[in-house]
Amino acid sequence: MDAAPLAHGGDLGAARLLFPGAREPFVDLSTGINPHAYPIPRLEPEAFRRLPEPAAVRRLSAVAAKAYGAPSAAHVVAAPGTQILLPYVAGLVPSGRAAVLAPTYSEHVRVARLVGHVTTEVADVGQLHDADLAIVVNPNNPDGRLFGKDALLAVTKDLRARGGLLMVDEAFMDVGAAGASLGDEVACGNIVVLRSFGKFFGLAGLRLGFALAAPEIAARLNASLGPWAVSGPAIAIGEAALADLAWAEAMRASLGREAGRLDEILTEAGLDVVGGTSLFRLVRTPAASELFHHLGRAGILLRRFAEQPTWLRFGLPADEDAWIRLRTALAAFPP
Amino acid sequence: MDAAPLAHGGDLGAARLLFPGAREPFVDLSTGINPHAYPIPRLEPEAFRRLPEPAAVRRLSAVAAKAYGAPSAAHVVAAPGTQILLPYVAGLVPSGRAAVLAPTYSEHVRVARLVGHVTTEVADVGQLHDADLAIVVNPNNPDGRLFGKDALLAVTKDLRARGGLLMVDEAFMDVGAAGASLGDEVACGNIVVLRSFGKFFGLAGLRLGFALAAPEIAARLNASLGPWAVSGPAIAIGEAALADLAWAEAMRASLGREAGRLDEILTEAGLDVVGGTSLFRLVRTPAASELFHHLGRAGILLRRFAEQPTWLRFGLPADEDAWIRLRTALAAFPP
Is B209 on the interface with A (CB under 8 A)? Predict the structure, then answer.
């Protein structure tokens, strides 16, 4: 089984071991990260040198609250990526039953178990109502399913009656349907929304993410993270990028066009696109393993799924050369 | 009480509120961060854009193991600063009795309580033997006390017999006595050593720190942090800096000379230097509060301690102008 070293996307080191001699540079389509990164502003040396100041984190939180529709900066927790928040969020409720709407990002099940929850994967929102911790990725990764606000709020209401919590991972909500985020609903007290910065802004290496939650929950999460959770560069870049609503709007439109182009190429190659978002497309094919290896040998890395052997996820090519390489390699399949 | 907004060093925003109209730029002596930062190498855009790859983290861990004297990369956990590790390390033992060698960095008591330990502060190493979690900062902050390896290993042995753990925060060990680190002793299984990157290398805003521990403990900590805990820039800069042993050696010598110069200036001003390391000096004076405010009004920020009202900690001035401003302001005290 060679899936283990590629449990997550973006691991070109492992890809090179799996496909020695593949064409370089690798075209990495294995993530859902925007290949058109937000332009990095000039960083002051102080951003690297000094401890991040509380006032700077408050400014970042205020900008994030506005960008993500949270009621105020007090409803925002800034973190070095959302991944590192998962154990703290999952630990907000005493060990009990966690239900994860699946199939989805595998870390949610792993972390819910790690912190002591008896964790089950469920297929639809209706099965979340009797959990102590309900976890939904919205829109879902990798199939792009979008869960309605009303249905999620109904879950929240039932959970609240029993001290339960809904965690909504909105990692890809920047390209989700307008108005679908639960960021403006967190004041009710038992919803935690996670927002990734690095995916939509194409800066995954920076490590920046947010939890949106009621102020008392946000305070608990901040107490666990401690002071200085977010780096100086992440604060500076995050503040600039999240305030740049014009960039975001133009990027959303542009990513939508590129996702359409990707669908055309995939369909032209005889593949069924069964879901996704503007940052990735999901293909289902019985030839998934062969196609993964065919493209891998051509230096194009996809995301495959150990539990879903007929699925392949395609991220967006970064430039015209990458688009041509993908189209050419697909045209030569099956070999 | 105006201490609250300055609970930690480095908060110039709070200093400006406390000392409106103070001379600018502020001379920040309130931290123990090296004012002579490691030169930041050119960073590839990919460091910001791509998810950090597992192989890159392994390389960083290997360099850190060598720099810190840990047995191997498997004994190293890379994190976005050591602060964020504290709850995970304190949570390695079931809730019980935590003993913190005090007075010291206040976050250890706060976090040990946060994760559920009944936490007491003790005055010497001999009082750590019956704890479930013993916490020592070595050399200690702010008094610079250095605790002997034999005494700490004796604590470890007693704790091990009862499933207890010793956490040694070696945040300032880069300027500690040679051979005093417990980094080469972590294989025994119940020692976790924390090493800060940002203090000695003057890059606190980068957020990088390490835990050194037995591989099974390191794996537990890594499981909590999840993939991608450390940013791309932190990996790139950390790898370069930790491998640069010549820079470290020269910097240690240079910081030692500057600490000596600081002692001269403080002594000349009639102050008692009662401890410290090469990155900060501790003064005890009944006029601590007056001196803090006198220097604050002159745009020089010190670190004071709510629990120790006669203490003031002085970091190293960054440049000749800052040295002169400190000497001049001290000469005008008492006003």
Answer: no
The rounded Cα B69 to chain-centroid distance in angstroms is: 18
Q: Which residues contact A60 (CB under 8 A, 6 or more apart)?
A: A78, A230, A235, A238, A239, A242
A54 in contact with chain B, both atoms CB, cutoff 8 A: yes
List strands edge to edge, sheet with B97-101: B76-79, B209-212, B191-196, B165-169, B133-137, B97-101, B118-122
Q: Name chain A contacts of B301, Cβ cutoff 8 Å.
A: none
**Is the pTM above the cut of 0.80?**
yes
- Distance CA(A224)–CA(A240), nearest Å, equals 26
pLDDT of residue B335: 85
A55 to chain B, any CB pair closer than 8 A? The answer is yes
Nearest CA in chain B to A229: B84
Which tokens go with B151? 């005494």
C-alpha B173 chain-centroid distance: 8
Please give the full DSSP string across A27-64, using - where no structure is assigned.
EE-SS---SSPPPPPPPPHHHHHSPPPHHHHHHHHHHH
pLDDT tens readout for residues A190-238: 999 999 999 999 999 999 999 999 999 999 999 999 999 999 999 999 9
Which residues neighbour B32 within 8 Å (Cβ) at sequence distance 6 or greater?
Answer: B9, B141, B142, B171, B172, B199, B277, B279, B280, B313, B315
Note the pLDDT of residue A143: 97
* Rounded distance between C-alpha atoms, residue A249 and residue B118, angstroms: 51
User: What span, in angstroms and rounded, lies between the C-alpha atoms of A295 and B308?
Assistant: 65
